[in-house]
Amino acid sequence: MLVAVDHVQLAAPPGSEDRLRRYYGEVLGMTEIPKPPVLAARGGCWFQAGPVQLHLGIEADFRPAKKAHPGLRVTGIEAYAARLAARGAQVVWDAHLPGHKRFYSEDPVGNRLEFLESESEPEPEPGQ
Q: Which is nearest to 119 in space by CA: 103, 100, 106?
């Protein structure tokens, strides 16, 4: 029986770890988590925010995921979109999912990411 998604893995080209760290760490606000040594030798990096984990694995014949993507739930989506835009990330709003606010962005290697918030979830108070 499935009970949860443990993580989502995205591919990245060789040598892109520093750009990934800047984007997933500084732009998205995730924390890099250590990879087990046997996996760290393969390159790439792993990130976590609360229970959400994204793993970036190195792929020699890399092609960015332009359609397939993780859908990441956020709170305070307008403020979060502003954070990304202020740090130079693309923010493309999409109003085609009823009951949700959402936007798309791309990581520095071209992988598509979706950020969404239910319209029934209240915005957090300033300072929270």
A: 100
Please give the structure tokens belonging to residue 54.
């994204």
The residue assigned the tokens 């893995």 is 9
Length of the chain: 128
What is the DSSP annotation of 79-126?
Answer: HHHHHHHHTT---EEE--STTEEEEEEE-TT--EEEEEEETTSPPPPT
How far apart are the C-alpha atoms of 92 and 1, rounded to whole Å? 36
Token pair, residue 20, equals: 């990934």
pLDDT in tens, 85-121: 999 999 999 999 999 999 999 999 999 999 999 998 5
Burial class (CB in 10 A: 0-12, 13-18, 19+), 83: middle
Contact 98, 110 (CB under 8 A): no
For tokens 């936007």, the residue is 103
